[in-house]
Amino acid sequence: MSNDERSGGTPGVLLSFVLGALSGAALAVLFAPRSGRETREILGDKLRETADRSRRLGERAVEKGREVAEDATGYVERQREALEKRRDRLSAAVEAGRQTYRDEKEKM
After folding, report:
1. What is the DSSP secondary structure assignment for residue 2, as one 8-state letter?
2. Counting Cβ atoms within 10 Å, is residue 24 exposed (0-12), middle (13-18) or buried (19+)?
3. Rounded Cα gap, residues 87 and 89, in angstroms
4. Residues 10, 11, 14, 20, Cα dihedral to 10°
5. pTM over 0.85
6. DSSP state, 33?
7. pLDDT tens across 47-68, in order?
8. pLDDT band at residue 84 using 50, 70 and 90 as cut-offs
């Protein structure tokens, strides 16, 4: 039995982390040296900061995704153009070969 099978794998680790974080947060609120109002204000401030940070990270991720998509589109377009050029050269070479064959056949 592998280590992942015994520990529950990634979902088990994530669940353990979340439960530990929630337990720690609950204990911190219970044993906080501040009043309930001060604690709520601090938690609200931290929540707003986290929400702002998450929003900025999300915006950066979306922008980075757009850049990657544009790069990929450009790459695909360049490869398509290169493939078309190769196809055209091959067609021209095949046609030249056919014409040469016809010319040699007429000489006989």
Report:
1. -
2. exposed
3. 5
4. -130
5. no
6. S
7. 899 899 989 999 999 999 999 9
8. very high
Q: What is the CA radius of gyration of the chain?
A: 33
- Domain residue extents for the chain: 7-107
Q: Which residues of 45-67 are buried (b: 16+ CB within 10 A; e: fewer)?
A: eeeeeeeeeeeeeeeeeeeeeee
Residues in the chain: 108
* Mean pLDDT, the chain, integer: 85
Q: How far apart are the first and last CA of the chain?
A: 78
| Residue 57 phi, psi dihedral angles, 5° rounding | -65, -40
Task: Provide the H-helix boundaries in 1-108.
Answer: 3-7, 9-30, 36-107
